[in-house]
Amino acid sequence: MSLTETNRRFYERLWSEAQLVEPQRFNTWPLVSELAARARRMLEVAPGLRPRLPLDRAQFVDISRAAMTRFRSRGAAASVGIIHALPFADGAFDFVCSFDIVEHVDDDETAFAELARVAAPGAALLLSVPLHASAWTPFDDFVGHRRRYEPNDLADKLARHGFAIERSAVFGMQPKSSRLLDLGMWFLTHQRERAMWWYNRVFMPLGLRMQKPLQWKQGFHDEPGIDTTLLICRKQG
Question: Residue 168's closest CA among 191, 147, 151?
Answer without folding.
Answer: 151
